Amino acid sequence: MKLKKKIVKDETVDKKVKSKPVEPANNKKAVITHYLHNYTNGVANHYKDEAIKYIKEDLQYTIDDEELSIVSENALARLLFEVENVPFPTPENYKFKFIDLFAGVGGFRLAMQNLGGKCIFTSEWDKDAQKTYRANFGEVPFGDITKEDTKKYIPEGFDVLCAGFPCQAFSIAGKRGGFEDTRGTLFFDVAEIIKQKKPKAIFLENVKGLRNHNGGRTLATILNVLRNDLDYFVPEPQIINAKNFGVPQHRERIYIVGFRKDLGITEFEYPKPNTKNVTFADVKEKNVVPTKYYLSTQYVQTLHKHKERHESKGNGFGFAIIPDDGIANAIVVGGMGRERNLVIDNRIVDFNPTTHIKGVVNRDGIRKMTPREWARLQGFPDNYIIPVADASAYKQFGNSVAVPAIQETANKLIDKILNI
Questions:
Q1: Mind telling me the catalytic residues?
Q2: Cβ-contact 320, 342 below 8 angstroms
Q3: Looking at the whole model, is its pTM more than 0.70?
Q4: N or C: which end of the chain has fewer CB within 10 A?
Q5: pLDDT digits 0-9 by tens, 225-242
Q6: What beta strand segments (E) does 146-265 contain?
């Protein structure tokens, strides 16, 4: 008996490097995969009716040319296999539930799952990031979280809200800087979800600059909304550096945690740096790196001139070469993010260019880090699948959270809510 399947074209695949946002109409794949991921628990009921409708529209199963009911055990087993046979499935005996907003490629999810968490909703508007997320977790994130058509899919009853939301200034001149003053910003959407769903705890991550953004008013408004408008105990945010938690990257980010006040939690201690000594050598590729990652002689010369020009003006901007026993600079998208993390690797065996370059491949072994090295700098394990082109991969890992630092902090947060 052979099971055959016909599936409509996968709309999450985008061959272009430049990603496009996912429109609300394309949330049906998110509905289906979220339903299947929660099939064995009550959360599935939140997605069930719409999921079954979409499944019947998009999938047609037949056995020996006979139609197979979508509710039959064989068809259901096949569907469940497709969402569960992934590198990072949900823990079997999960201890808490969480949602993953502005999910990127799942750095928060990896950390929370490692601690025994079950993700019941995720959103990420970037199509290439959705593709990577699906390959690793078997789930398609919902699209733009600012849209009511997306927010309506958020279930009730989750314990933790996770969000690495972008930083935006608020127009609060002459106002107290409360909930209504954040309208039009992405934080407003996060706050609105917290207000409606009232999770036990929240875990927000942002760039270090949030502390002084807009003269400090942005952070002050966020804390005022969380503490007073939403009634959460929020200890002072802390700057956490990824290099202190097991990855060789100098990456400082601000972490904000909070607990619903009725839980009676009145203290929280952020994790202390561990003593593990890590360097770039710990994440360096073990095998010879393809020639395409090596810089041309002309580009190396351009970088030197660029650096000299800035140094003559008293600026420190320019490329940097990270030694094997050193710590990488923060990996970022744009702003010479790759050029500030060049390395020396003399294992190259083929100097014939494999991509179009000006000049010839340099003989000094100067190359860019690979996407896999960037993934390791963020704490992603080697079985994490990278299904996209290099340009998209650099963008995705550059925008990601550092998994080990998130996990250490989340561990303390989860311990609080599980022991009340």
A1: 167
A2: yes
A3: yes
A4: N
A5: 999 999 999 999 999 999
A6: 160-163, 201-207, 232-233, 238-241, 252-260
